[in-house]
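Supplementary Note 2. Why include the ligand at all?

Several targets in our set were suspected to adopt different conformations when bound, so apo predictions alone were not considered sufficient. For every target with a known small-molecule partner we therefore ran a joint prediction. The input for guanosine-5'-monophosphate is given below.
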Amino acid sequence: MMSKNKGVLIVISGPSGAGKGTICKKLIEKNKNIYLSVSATTRSPREGEIDGVNYYFLTKEEFERKVKENGFIEYAEVHGNFYGTPRVNVNKMLEEGKDVILEIDIQGALQVKENFKEGVFIFILPPSMEELKRRIIKRGSETEESLMTRFKNAYKEINYVSKYNYAVVNDTLELAVSKVEAIIAAEKCRVDRIKDNTILESKEGLIHEQLYD
Ligand code: 5GP
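The joint prediction is reproduced in token form.
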């Protein structure tokens, strides 16, 4: 019997200003089977951000309650605020064969790696540190202090690229998005992910013929 392949869990990290948010947005616009998990955070909404769309904005008490209830797949303190991936939905979507993106920091990604061995871990790199600085300043949504914190963290974070499966330099948006799409496409072809027995069993004779005749 044909059983559905599980969706791919894609974890995307990278320093602020590397452009991971824009890449993720473009990916979900272009690919209807890819879902972006909405995180919870204790940070205040930025202008234009909507509760339940960009983040679930929680108080520290609400966040702590959810931690106690084991409501997060992972959570971490980033730049002085808490962020976490709600457990509900992620498992369900993967079971339904939908691909799920988590755009989370390195501490969170390392926690996910412990529990989702089959996850695909992608690190987004800026073309250069100079360009990264320019992008963070251009964004303009940060106070001077948080800008410095983000920049210092970016230097440290880049060392963690080796913990990931793939590194994508975000030189131009289109190219970076197509590289991530290629990674996802390749991962879906991995034999250890294919559950659809019709490919591996009923075609056995055919594959055998092609390989050995
Ligand atoms: P921002 O405040 O700019 O939206 O996000 C700051 C950082 O928090 C980014 O590096 C982002 O990837 C990370 N982040 C967002 N959501 C989560 C989450 O659910 N878990 C973790 N660990 N990090 C998150």
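The CA atoms of residues 9 and 117 lie 10 Å apart. The mean pLDDT is 89. Comparable summaries for the other entries are listed in the accompanying table.
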